[in-house]
Amino acid sequence: MQIKSFLLFAFLGTVMAIPKPCGNGDEGDAERVAEKVAEGLNCQQDEDGGVFVCSDESGANCIINSSGGGTCL
To answer: Taxonomically, which superkingdom (predicted)?
Structure first.
């Protein structure tokens, strides 16, 4: 009985720890991409449509994802 309870709580804790998307995010993506283009980066949407890949003149890349994160500073 205790092992079943432990497994149930472990499963529920894992489910609660999964990050949830913050809505559509299209407006925020467009704003961030516009900011990066204004800074001189070349941004293109990837094949899946969920991530923008931005690169500069030296070949360095960064991404902007649909949840508002990414590696672009």
So the answer is: Eukaryota
